[in-house]
Amino acid sequence: AQSVAQPEDQVNVAEGNPLTVKCTYSVSGNPYLFWYVQYPNRGLQFLLKYITGDNLVKGSYGFEAEFNKSQTSFHLKKPSALVSDSALYFCAVKDMDTGRRALTFGSGTRLQVQP
Amino acid sequence: DGGITQSPKYLFRKEGQNVTLSCEQNLNHDAMYWYRQDPGQGLRLIYYSQIVNDFQKGDIAEGYSVSREKKESFPLTVTSAQKNPTAFYLCASSSETGVNQPQHFGDGTRLSIL
Q: Which tens digits make up the pLDDT trace of A100-109?
């Protein structure tokens, strides 16, 4: 079975400060990992993914994520937060080695960036 | 523009009524998905389809039904057997040419009970 945990319901950060949104995962095989962002009453927008290769993945809007296999983590980061980054962020995983093609999502973390 | 269109944006259901949510995509994607979003619970998979005329149950399929008669369309019916249907429903699609392709999402349908 595959699962994802986002331990923080909400993260607060001041504009201009670095931000981190945490994600840990569990799969029986090797993971595909994704980050999505959701604005109010909208669908999810893809930010970035890890498939294989470099552990630091760069994505849209200046976001990046670091894959850590030993800690089974895939934390989302940004060096300098913007007020417009305030949204709901979801981590998702797919086990590369099982037949299930659908993603499993975490419960989401609300990011609040204060001006 | 290519994308996924969900309709209606808001839907109200009466007791004992079945309602159908529409999802259409023009991305030429093989796979399509339905998720239910409740506050604090993230997205939960209802049904998914990897090819026309085939679909599989997800984690919370009870009280829902789907069809996949065309590649572009994947409607979801919320039946009267679903006792707690109030939620935000999201449709997604992805290319199956590479299993690592991200899913693209529509803007959702918010379903409420009258």
A: 668 899 999 9
